[in-house]
Amino acid sequence: MSQHTEGTFTSFDGLEIYHQAWLPDGDPAAVVMLVHGLGEHSGRYAHVARSLNDAGFAVHALDHRGHGRSEGKRVFVKSYDEFMADLMQFRASLERQHQGVPLVVLGHSMGGNLAVGHVLDHQPGVAGLALSGAALQVGSDLTPTKLKMFRLIAKIAPAFRPEGLNADAISRDPAVVAAYRDDPLVFTGKISAGLGAALIDAMERFPDRYPELALPVLVMHGTEDQLASVDGSRALAAAAVNADVTAHYYEGLYHEIFNEPEHDQVLADLVSWIHDVIS
Length: 279
Description:
This protein is an alpha/beta fold. It has a single domain, classed as Alpha/Beta hydrolase fold, catalytic domain (Rossmann fold). Helices cover 36% and strands 20% of the residues. The chain starts with a strand and ends with a helix.
């Protein structure tokens, strides 16, 4: 029987950031810092945490600022560095709590982007980086002209909200889509231009830095992901020449591979990889 805990910490700029943990019986063999995606919250990963607990791993997750139970304007940041500061503060608390235990950073979608950004700047002490449907490449619909206009909007009116996510694209399971739409902690409105621009800037910075990754990396992506291009994951896998990369491209799966009908296999692949990383 795993133990569930929750709490908050105060960010550098005074926001209360919610976090929760799922802890296995006994001492954990690894600690997983789980970084959730855009508009959602950490509570949507309870089933992922249970699978990891069953394997003997502790799971800790925060709700990003402006998401879930955390404070802040909904789905908005002034800069990418705000996300990075929160993750570093959170990670430091986990390392104090679990001294000497291997740390794995697991990010989904936007969380995959943030996980890459964090690990590139703070790689020492991370045993492995796992990515699920990571948002690592600008969509082909954003032409150079559109990108220029988007950045101009983000600079002038960062709180402007041009578009949102298509909930139907998260999973082939209608029950998952319905639960997502009905979840009061999920933000289903339009995304702020400021946050979008911050992610796009990171996507464009990352490729030149992929060779800096020198640790085990797990890339997982559904081939029919319409929200985060699988090409971004393939590009990381190819360019991270100094990392030990394991890649799983799940044929026909949508964006949320942990919530697809085949999620048992996806979770088994994740657990097996973590075991290999810490062995």
